[in-house]
């Protein structure tokens, strides 16, 4: 097994190795387009994505590795959360990026419906067939054509906690949702609110719902609800909202109560657990919590910041919900050759290894040696994601039209914020969700 030290050395020298067409850390030859550092010299690739801060910085290292390998210069454009609007305006203005890192399945489908996307090269499709679980190809395809390569994924079924706080309360990481609520009450009774909930960011609330729903209702219903083949007024939805209300309705379990949760954004929720003055014992969100805890607050992942899998609800199985960013090629981009070469590069484990070493990143690519991850905890979250195979389910809100599942202050985000504010009537919330979903899907289908 590769040692942590050798993994770090391998990661730090990877970009240089790529430039020389060397072998990958595991000894396999680098095969992405070019390899002599000159194949695309003089060309510039423009890549757009939502990332900023540490994520943008880490993705830039991937872009730099591509430059070292091919000679192509790169330019990253941050779109913010409204990817569809920003990319649409750039296309209309004749300034389309070559590649877009799309964070939502629904947006990818929207782009394809508008005829903005080029099918991915055959070489990329072969890599996906060989090295990805079939579910990932399905999420990247529209009507049987592969348009999106999932480069970055996340395990959104992780609950992060302070070992000191749980030890003080005398509780162990729970295996079921009811055990988690019992542990939360014990933590609260010990003097620390149990959960920091990032209610100011509506997307975190959709993630809470999706984990409960996948476990409680099962994958078949999850898929049907994601496609709006069953209504949000279905009894299974109401039941999951009731389950979620057991947490949301108990103010003593939430840092700052419901009002405090609604005033807390995602980084703030991590700070409440792992910051200099802890205000809660646990925070639910994806594996990317580790990056914030480590980079912003100096926590040692696996020591003073740990996680347990989102627990099973009722008689269901423990859920594995994922999100991710798919690379797509725009037809109107100015540099198709560089774009195709970049997608070929992203499909390799070498590209994934660059970011894996930095943290805050998981790859659904089975060919990536998990030794590339910088610490055992991230390795465990990656192994859980890849090991789930076809049972992984993509974030449901990210599969929906953006008007329902991906718009700040509207649709599912806003309705679940209202539910957090007052979780007393799950049936009424389900009716609101159905009205918003029906409108958004109807508009999307017409478009």
Automatic annotation (TrEMBL):
Pfam families: SBP_bac_1. Residues 1-24 form the signal peptide. It comes from Streptomyces rubrolavendulae. Belongs to the bacterial solute-binding protein 1 family. Keywords: Signal, Transport. It comes from the Bacteria. InterPro entries: Bact_solute-bd_prot1, SBP. SUPFAM superfamilies: Periplasmic binding protein-like II (SSF53850). This is Multiple sugar-binding protein.
